[in-house]
Amino acid sequence: MTRRPDRRAVSTLTGPGSSPQPGDANPYPESVPSGTLVVTDVNRSFGTVAAVRDVSVSLLGGGSLALLGPSGCGKTTLLRIIAGLERLDSGSVSLDGRVLTDATTFVPAQKRPVGMVFHDWALFPNMTVAANVAFGLRRRNSERVQQVLDMVGLTELADRKPHQLSAGQAQRVALARTLAPRPQLVLFDEPFSSLDADLRGRVRAQVSALMAELGISAVYVTHDQDEAFVLGDRIAVMRDGAIQQDAAPDIIYEQPASRWVADFVGGANWVRGFAADGVARTAVGLLSMESASLTGDVEVLVRPEQLSLRSGGDFEVLRVDYTGPVTTYDIIGPDASRGTVSAQLRASMPGPPRFAPGSRVSANAVDRRYRAFPPS
Amino acid sequence: MTEVLAGTHARSRRRGPGVLLGAGITIIGLLFAAPFLYLLISVVRSGSVLDVLGSGAIGRPLLNSLILGVSVSAAATVLGTLAAVLVQRADVRGRRVLRIALALPLVLPSYVGATALLAATGVGGMLPFIPRPVGFWGAFAVLTIFTYPYAYLPVLARLTMIPTSTEEAARVLGRSAWPTTWRVLLPQLRPAIAGGALLVFLYTLSDFGAVSLLRYDTLTRVIYSSRLLDRDLSLALGLILAVLALAIALLMRRAGVGAAPPLARTRWQPTITLGRWRSAVSAILLLPLLIGVVLPIVIFVYWVLRGGTTVGVGYSGWGDDLSFLVSPLLGSASAAITAGVVAVLVTLPVAYAVERRGGVLSELSGSVVTSVFALPGLVVALAIITWTLGTPGPIGSLYQTFPLLILAYVLHFGAQSLTGTRSAITAVPVRLEEAAESLGVPWRRRFLRVDLPLLLPGLLAAGGLVMLSTMKELPATLMLAPIGFETLATVIWGAAEDGFFAEVGITSILLIALSGVLTWFLVLRKEFHDTQT
To answer: Are both B162 and B251 inside the same structural domain?
Structure first.
């Protein structure tokens, strides 16, 4: 079973119609793995709407990138530009040093060594599973069909038609079909959004494991933060066509580049405080800040799990939500910096509820460095 | 027309109609079936079918009908499918306008198109250097241009429902536009293409005006021309045509132009980029509109301005008295409005029974009404004439009266009205009735305040469609109109046969205008509203 082709083998694979030109010198050193994507200053407008604005992002071969953002942020347009299903107005996209598209070049979708899994999976309803999988192969190669069906564990469904498949099976057929022609890069357009929650978790874990095992670069488009965190080695957070932050998941969460990113990724408390010498005085204690340069009125980002509650204090518990592993408390209390203004915060702590609504608590932020922003 | 013949769907509450409603819809069903049962029985009893079959007189017209039907539906299907795929999937210029423009030849009845062709060619026409294309090629050209929208519209509707992602998947998997369209898109369009092809075939088989004016001896033309001199032949051919038409309607039902569940639509996205062919293809897609709508109107205007001969009252040139148009206009209007109102009244109980009560009886009367629609107007008229003339007493005395003409329209177009009245009834939710009942509102008030406002749009559409069809109808009007009763259609027909093209021109322009307005409001607006993007 050739589940783990070595890197050298992968780097010599070519997709359909992408036979390397003799003159095509690879400008990258030998160490850069195949499937390296570079997107530079890409712009795309539809009428007066700028769908993608000055986007630059890159992905080292074999890695995975999640494009995360609310619907309409341009992430799907960017994905389609990479696939060759959409044109760009300016900028360039290249794969392994070969320009796929820029102001003068446009390699059509069918000539790119790029695969794509669509959000509705786009299986050909008139063909069997095997014919779907074989569609991207230059000549009918039943061995390869068998091989990829095996990879996704669907060998016994080869003769089914798409309408006879469950959602999870259809999803895997779509993946097998995409992998069959050995693409160097696979694009996923919200491929798990039509699965129900239980299945979604399992399938995306399997998919990301398989992609990592095969060493094929992957770009995932998603609006779901959990999904992005699970799937991407790196996450590019997009908003209104532009990339807000491009970093590893923990950096995105711990050190968001902007208030918007902080709010979009996970829950965020904006605790008002007064800063001096790298320390902010707040209602949840003295917080040391990442940067000492910010002084005066600040708003400190404190995640709900970074607050711990103790009974007796200035805050009143408004609401308690018990979800099993954690309990979330909405609390209200005085605002340290302004005395009269009250602040509403959210804290989440492991275990079952320990405080009832209406009880008095004190809130303390755990000891760590916090990121602060000027007041909005 | 597609949806009219598409058949009935499952409903949940099936109590069956009560005694009164049951009796009512039985009478209506029998009324729709009677003329055809009479035709069937009289032909079978006289044994004339066997004689005619033996004589060989049937072979030629049947063969001609089939040849014309097959070739027109093949050409129209290719044209319609190609146009729909290009306009919905390629990056053509002026897509929004083209989508509607490509359906517009629908506005002209085929006999008007044939008339335009006759008026343009030959002596005095705009294009005298072109020989008059009478016979097969003329009929083929005219019917293809005027029936391809019946293939275009269902394919277009289907295309808007198929997500573009399968085609994009094929592109990403390394296939170019042509294999993608051929191997991925067309198989998904097959039911719509088959449905459209059958519809065109049925339409061609039923056509009377164009084949008669262009002198191509199909079943309809021979049935009409032999109806007085060789009645047995006429009736036997009528029966054969009826059986053929019903068989095709049955096939269409089985082809099931069923709708795929529409997926969430995103922005319209071309999957075929035409590159340097873009402008050329966009221009070519305007040709059907130019040939099917603009050219006939230009030809008619030419004749109106040029003038021509006529006899008695009529139009012979610019500045002539147009009062001769009053009588056919009133005739068309009175026939259309009466037929529309009566059709709605007659089909409403059937619609209610089918939608709300269910049961075998309801389904049966619904099917009878629907089936008659598949029959050519000529056969409907033939059956009604045979029935009335063969039945002495009150029914016999109806021959060549206005009520009998209306009956013919109602029978012929009842299915259009039934579709409309059924959707009108489904527009009134059952829950709403129950809610009103539970509030203790008296039914009269409930009907006026709740039901009627919800029913009205559907009923108006149903009546309007029957009006439109009635106005364009030719053979039944020719055969059943009372002496001296004229409509726009019969005036065009008479004048075209006599070569009075100036008169044909002015009357046709009037008919096209009226039909255009009604078609826009009743057919196209809805079609393109439903399938936007």
So the answer is: yes
